[in-house]
What does this fold into?
Amino acid sequence: MAHDFPFDHFLKIGNKNSTAETFNNQFKSTNTQNISNLNSQPIQDEELSVINHEILNHLQTVVPELKFKTYFENNLELKSMNESTVNFEVKTAFIKKSVELYKEEITKALFNVLGTMYEVIIESRDQTDYQLGKNPSNQVNKSFNDVKFTLDLTPTRDDLTSRAHAQYIEHMNPNQSGIIIDRSKTFDNFIVGPTNNMAQAASKAVAQNPGKNGKYPSLYVHSNSGLGKTHLLHAVANEINEKHPGLTVCLITARDFMDEMITLMKNNRINEFVKKYTEKVDVLMIDDIHELKNKEGTQDQFFHVFNEMHNKGKQLIFTSDKRPKEIDGISERIKTRLQWGLVVDIQPPDLETRIAILRRKMEGLDLYVTEDVLTLIASRIKTNIRELEGSLVRLKAVSELMNVEIEIDLVREQLMLPNSESEKEITIEHVAKATAQYFRIPLADLKSKGRSQDITKARHIAMYLARKVVNAKQQEIGSFFGGRDHSSVIHAVNTIAEKVKTDSTLSKDINSIESNL
It folds into this structure.
C-alpha cells in the first residue's frame, strides 16, 4: 500500500446519529496535509478496494438486506476520488437508479470511514462503455462518421432476478389497507383439505344463510399467516352479494376500523361511527381482529358495535392468528364475546392439498409446470399457502424475463430448495426471515436500531432461536442483527429463555416459528 495513503482519514465516529454540525466540525478538523496527499499522488487500486470494503460494511447495517445484496454487494465499486469528490461505478443503469436512492447513506458511510464529507457521483458501466474518448489513442484523426459506439441496455441476469423477486415480494406482502372485496376469491377456487374443511364449511353456511336465522351468527376463524383466512372472508362476501343482494356487507381490517374511528372521533363525529355499523351494515367482517390489542379506546367502541349488531341479529365474522383467549392486550369482555359463536381453526395443508393448491394456481397464472416440479415444491414448502403460491409467481416471472424453461435445477436455484429435506441447513438468516414473517415485521426492522416493543420482542425471539436452533455464536448473532455486541445477545437469549417457562403464548409463538423452519 502506498506510503502516502491518508490513514488519518480513518476516524472513529462514536455516534452514528451525528448532526450536520458534528459533520462540519469534523470536516474542519481534518488534517489539511492529508488532503494535499490526495492531490499530490493518486490513490492506488488496493487502497480504493480497502475503502470500498469499509463503506459496504457500513451500508450493510443501514440498507435492507434484499436491496443490499441486489444493488450493493458485488455491484458498488469505488473507482476514484480526490479531495472533494468520490466516484462509484455499478454494473447497469437499472442498478444505478436504485443505488442513487441511498446517496445520503453512502455520503454518511464515507464520512464514518474517512472523516470527511465528499460529493458522491455514481455511474453505470454500460454508460462508461459507450462514452466517447474512453480510449483516445484509438480515436486520433478519426472523423465523426468513423466513430462508432453502442449502448447495450439489455438487462443483466441480476437485473432480471431482482425484477422476478420484486413480483414475489408483492405477492407475499399484499396491501390490505382500504380493503376491497376481491371478486376472484370464491368458494369455487378455495382448495378444501382435511386441515381446513371445517372452516370452509362454516364459512359456506354463513354465506348461504347469514345472521340470526343462520347456524353461526358469529364466526371466528384463526390460523397462522398465509393459510387462507382472508380468502374465506372474500368468498363469504362474494357469495352473500350474489345470493343476498339486499344485504350490506362490510369487509375491513382491524387497523382500518381503528383508523376510521380515530378520524371521526377527532372531528367529534363518533356517533356516526357507531351508527354506520349498527344501522347500515348487515354483515361485518373484520380481518386480523388481534390488531386491536392494547387499543383500549377502539376496543370500547368495538364492544358497543358488537353488542348492538349481535342484539339486532346481524352477522359477525372475525379472523385472527390466535384463539380469542390467547390474544394479549384484549379485554376479557371482548374475548368472551369473540367466543360466543363458532370458533374454528385452519392448520397447514397436507401434501395432497398443497399439490392441488399449486395446480389451481398454475391454471390461474396460465403456467405449465411438470408434476415433478409441483411435487418438489409441495414437499418443501409446507406451512404457508401464500408462500406456496408465491413460488409459482416467482418461477413464472423468472421464466418469462429470462426466457428459460422451468426445470428442477432452476426451481432449486430460484427457490433455494435443498436436494432433499434432510439437506436443508437452517441458518441465522432462515431464523430471522421466519420470525419476521410470523410477526409480520420487515426483516430490515429486526436488524435496525428500532426499539419499539413489537420489534424488540421479535428480535429477541429471533436471537434466542438462532442460538437454540442454529447453535450460532453470540458474535455471529450480534453481527447479523445490526452489529450488536455479545452482551446484547446474551441479554436477549436469557430474557426469552426465562419468559418461555411461564408464558404459554410466547411458547406457542416460538413453537410455530420452529415448525415453519
